[in-house]
Write the structure tokens for this entry.
Amino acid sequence: MTDKPKIPAIELKQLQFFYQRGGWQLNLPELTLHCGQHLFVRGASGSGKTTLLNLLCGITRPVSGELYINGQPLHKLSSSARDSLRAKHIGVVFQQLNLIPYLSVLDNTLLSSHFAGQNKAAALNRAKTLLQRLGLNAELWHKAANQLSVGQQQRVAIARALLPKPVLLIADEPTSALDSDNRDAFMRVMLAEADANGCSVIFVSHDQSLTQYFHTQLDMQQLAKGVQPC
Amino acid sequence: MLMKLARLSLWNRRGTVLMTWLSLTISIALLLGIDHLRTEAKSSFTSTVSGTDLIVGARSGQLNLLLYSVFRIGNATANISWPTYQRIIKHPQIDWAIPISLGDSHRGYRVMGTNSDYFKHYRYANSQPLVLAQGEPFAQVFDTVLGAEVALKLGYKLGEQIELSHGVGAVSFSQHKDKPFTVVGILAATGTPVDQTVHVSLEAIEAIHLDWQQGAPMPGRQLSSEQVLAMDLTPKSITAFMLGLKSRMATFTLQRQINEFKNEPLSAILPGVALAELWQMLSMVENLLLLISLLVLLAALVGMITTLLASMKERQREMAILRAAGAHPWYLFVLIQVEVLLVTLLSMLSAAALLLLSLYLLQDRLAADFGLFISLNIIKLNTLYWAGGILLLSALLATLPGILAYRKALADGLTVRL
């Protein structure tokens, strides 16, 4: 990889998105996230969190504005180029059910390096190290993913997201299915691993108590126009 | 990884996949089986008679002549007189001739009067001669040589005495009871109507009818076997005869000469041409069978696609995870294609196994009951075409759920609408 420390993980300018002209809108005037910086995105449901994540992941393209991930202009790239960018530089963790139930823990982890087109042997070694560091021991590796507890599954998802050494880890309320003890343990281990890999985390949640872990905050309520209160 | 995903995903849905596999296996086996039987039946059919250049009978259509002389189906319209036969076979181009005299039967099996040239010159399949499994050709007047099926079905052994019946029905009211025949030979199975024929000499046919007139025994004039043997048994007429020529080039000339024969209205046919014409009539049925099995296959494939389409909803989460991990929508499309091709390929293999097994089990029955000799070799060029066609068709049909997966992946993004 040709990462230079000067290039920010995310840089966006005058980003605008809407599904229909005149309807609901998402506006992001400016945001820069340097490598290793973490961002907490807070917002109620319907506030456009998912839309923002889809934009950052390159699933949807902004209507106007500029969006750079790791220095690459996502707003200009074709959909397949955005897909490979996501595979290489962005890790994603969902609320729950992050794993393909019929694949083993190890295979689930290796999926991301497969799509990033990385060397298999190296990826396997790194996957084992990552899983170990996330507290998932060797006896779990060959179990089917659905035999694990929710907390364990979320940690496997972190391992998968971090395996291709992304610059950005996007986590969409990954702790909502966890109890408070598990949640704190999860936050610590996720951020520790992200820091160890020099990866920025964008963490989306409505849980105010988690803000303590983050350098920066973004309130969705201020960005979206025409939000219907729910 | 793609193969692993496809394999494990199928295994994860093994219930529905199993049913799909089962229906595909059955329909592919059906298709290949019918195709196999078709080609085998055709070759079995067209190999009924070989090496014979012309078949001559009283004037009639070529199918009628072929049917009664070769397949023992139907009856001749008229006979050929013995002097005419003698005169024609003196033609310098003729290498050999086999006279045939039909009209009697034995418990439903046709009796054919002929001479020793039959065993010498008659050929079937790829110029295979008749082989005696037991015994030897008839030498005495009241000797008979049985076809393989006759001996097997009726349980006859060498040395046994049998009686012939007048006419060709399975149950005949007029028997040639007074003149029993001795089984002296049993032919090896040929897979042709020869297996269903009781062979006797021309003289025997003459002998059993000496004391008959107008198709019924003459009252008050019974001749014993011994009396008959002392009489002149030269046949007065025969039903048809087969000709082998010295040079095939002469076939058409001779055919024309026989057709224009002045003394008696005769027809000479080329067995190959007549067989082809007959097969063409039968192939209607065969094509219909093939069409039906094709439709069955199509139904099975559509069934597979239906279950796939139904499963797409429960697989949305799976697709979203793959997308989040960096999979391009094309990857999902290919994944579904690979799954479909895997199932189809597996079904083809099991269909081939099923077909082989059933052919192996049915082979003897088919040979015994229908005179069909089916080889176990089902892999032919044709089979490969079918296999390719089936794979292509399934891939084509799989584009439907594939495109659905592709488009859903684009529309839903990483979120899953449950």
Q: What stands out?
A: Chain A has one domain: 10-220. The longest strand of chain A covers residues 10-18. Chain A touches chain B through 32 residues (CB under 8 Å).
